[in-house]
Design a protein that fits this description.
single chain
Length: 216
């Protein structure tokens, strides 16, 4: 988190934010921009570009949740490219935090994107980002991702899911897979116990994509 250390990059990020609001920075042009940013500055550049600030302090985390930890930009780029995420998809981020994954997935692909987050303070921040960026096709829900009915074609999970929480989340995803084929994108997370998911390797060691098989 934080702003780029290079003032020129900070100004470039703010210019990119204005282009996003105007609807002028999307898809391949945004990919090209992000890849042009030095790797060590890429995370802070994206947060500056999207207007993401430090998360609010939460005195008592909801049961089963963990402190906010953003997913890396390169993992998000790989997810969109290799899943692949297309304009006709419904992309869902389970445990969406401040909204970085869902917002970037939409901007990069044109897909409708949503996030489900158990920490209400983070949901408020994510919604504020969407309002400021004029992104009508990105939304966030305050809910427990393991206790709500899910709907989508591509689902994203990051490290905070483990143990019983992960088992219940996979149960919800299996319900969706009974209705339609889905892709599950997992970062720093292995889904060995889901026999209905077929893994495929990606360009990032930390990212595994899983295709649903026929579920009866």
């Amino acid at each position: 988190m934080g702003a780029p250390t290079d003032e020129s990059l900070r100004l470039q990020a703010r210019g990119a934010r204005a282009d996003i609001v105007a609807g002028a920075l999307r898809g391949a042009a945004l990919v090209e921009l992000l890849l042009s940013i030095p790797v060590l500055e890429r995370e802070t550049f994206v947060d500056e570009m999207l207007g993401i600030e430090e998360p609010p302090e939460v005195a008592d985390l909801p049961r089963g949740s963990v402190p906010y930890l953003p997913c890396g930009v390169d993992e998000i780029l790989a997810t969109v490219r290799e899943a692949p995420v297309r304009a006709g998809d419904a992309f869902v981020d389970l445990g969406s935090g401040l909204g970085r994954v869902a917002i970037l997935a939409h901007l990069l692909s044109g897909a409708r994107a949503s996030g489900i987050e158990i920490q209400e303070a983070l949901v408020r921040c994510a919604r504020a980002r969407c309002a400021e960026l004029a992104l009508a096709d990105v939304s966030f829900v305050h809910a427990d991702a393991t206790a709500v009915e899910l709907d989508g074609s591509i689902f994203f999970l990051y490290a905070p899911f483990n143990g019983d929480v992960l088992r219940r989340a996979l149960g919800r995803l299996e319900e969706v897979a009974r209705r339609r084929p889905i892709v599950v994108c997992a970062v720093d997370l292995e889904l060995h116990d889901a026999s209905w998911l077929q893994p495929r390797k990606t360009s990032r060691v930390s990212l595994t994509l899983y295709d649903s098989t026929a579920v009866t």
